[in-house]
Amino acid sequence: MAEKIRFHLDENVITAVAEELCRRRVDVTTTPEKALIGVSDLAQLEFASAQKRAIFTQDTDFLRMHRTQITHAGIVFCSQGSKSLGEIIRGLVLIWELLEPNDMLGKVEFL
To answer: In the chain, what is the greatest distance between 2 CA atoms, to the nearest angstrom?
Structure first.
């Protein structure tokens, strides 16, 4: 059986995204539940990578970090206000269904 992507949602993502992913049995953690509110974006990315989780964010700072060739387990990015909640959920579930964790290593997927 193929390994499934696990996600971490940064503090810019509304909690409804995590709730909907959990309802679909997607393994997801959030910044508030892991007591990471207010820590740097780099610390968020390091946490997600250490946990082998792709981070979902709407913060362009993560795209800048990616361009510096920093090691990470994957970044899924969506510009704030560009997609509805349903579109975000469908996009994340599609990534979860089609890709494996190794497919995300060091890469960015855009919703």
So the answer is: 37
Report DSSP letters for the chain, one per residue: -PPPP-EEE-TTS-HHHHHHHHHTT--EEETTTTT-TT--HHHHHHHHHHTT-EEEE--THHHHHHHTT---S-EEE--TTSS-HHHHHHHHHHHHHH--HHHHTT-EEE-
pLDDT digits (tens, 9 = 90+) for 39-61: 999 999 999 999 999 999 999 99
pLDDT single digits (tens) 64-83: 999 998 999 999 999 998 99
Looking at the chain, how many residues does it have? Answer: 111
Closest CA to 14 of 34, 30, 28: 30
Question: What span, in angstroms and rounded, lies between the C-alpha atoms of 46 and 92?
Answer: 20
Give this prediction's pTM: 0.93
Domain boundaries, the chain: 7-110
Instruction: Please answer whether residues 7 and 27 qualify as being in contact, where contact means their C-beta atoms are separated by less than 8 angstroms.
Output: yes
